[in-house]
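Example for tutorial group B:
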C-alpha cells in the first residue's frame, strides 16, 4: 500500500511490524521482517515469513491536553450541556409518545370493536416471536428462558394477550382515522 496512516501501538498490522518502524528516519527505506500468523485470513500467506520495504513519509504525534482544572471545567461544561440536550430530547420524545398514546387510548375506549380470537392469537404469537428474536440476540433460546423463569408456553400466551389486544385496537383505530381523514 501507499500513503497508509499507521498508528504505532494500534496493533493493526502483523505482530512485530510496528515495532520495527520505531526510530526509522523520514524518507529512508526500512526493511521490516515479519512472519504471518498461522491463523492469517489469507491462507496462502499463513505462517510464512515476509519482508516489507517501507518508507516513512511523515511522522505525527498526538498531543493530548494537560489534565488540569481548566481542562476539566471545559470538558465538564461541554459534557453537562450535551447531557442536558440529550435529556431534554428524550423528555420531549417521551411526552409526545405519551400524548399520542393517550389520544389513541381515548379513542379505543369509545370505539366498538369485535376482534376475533384468532386475530388476537396471531398477534400474541407475533409478540412472542419478536421476544424470542430479542432473546436469541442475547444468546438465549426460548427453551432456556422458559427453564430459567419457570414460564410455560401457555403462561406466555396468557401474559401477552392484553398487549396483543391493545396492538390490534390501536392499529384498527389508526386505520379508521386514516380512512376517515383520507390520509395516504
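The residue assignment follows.
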Amino acid at each position: 500500500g501507499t500513503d497508509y496512516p499507521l498508528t504505532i501501538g494500534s496493533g493493526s498490522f502483523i505482530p512485530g511490524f510496528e515495532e520495527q518502524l520505531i526510530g526509522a528516519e523520514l524518507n529512508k527505506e526500512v526493511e521490516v521482517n515479519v512472519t504471518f500468523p498461522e491463523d492469517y485470513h489469507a491462507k496462502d500467506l499463513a505462517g510464512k515469513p515476509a519482508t516489507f520495504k517501507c518508507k516513512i513519509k511523515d511522522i505525527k504525534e498526538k498531543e493530548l491536553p494537560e489534565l488540569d482544572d481548566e481542562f476539566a471545567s471545559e470538558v465538564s461544561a461541554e459534557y453537562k450541556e450535551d447531557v442536558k440536550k440529550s435529556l431534554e430530547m428524550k423528555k420531549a420524545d417521551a411526552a409526545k409518545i405519551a400524548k399520542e398514546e393517550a389520544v389513541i387510548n381515548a379513542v379505543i375506549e369509545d370505539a366498538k370493536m369485535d376482534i376475533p380470537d384468532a386475530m388476537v392469537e396471531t398477534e400474541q404469537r407475533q409478540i412472542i416471536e419478536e421476544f424470542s428474536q430479542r432473546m436469541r440476540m442475547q444468546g438465549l433460546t426460548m427453551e432456556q428462558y422458559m427453564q430459567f423463569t419457570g414460564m410455560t408456553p401457555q403462561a406466555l400466551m396468557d401474559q401477552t394477550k392484553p398487549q396483543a389486544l391493545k396492538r390490534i385496537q390501536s392499529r384498527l383505530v389508526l386505520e379508521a382515522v386514516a380512512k376517515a381523514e383520507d390520509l395516504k
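The first strand starts at residue 29 and ends at 35. Compare this with the pattern of hydrophobic and polar residues in the output above.
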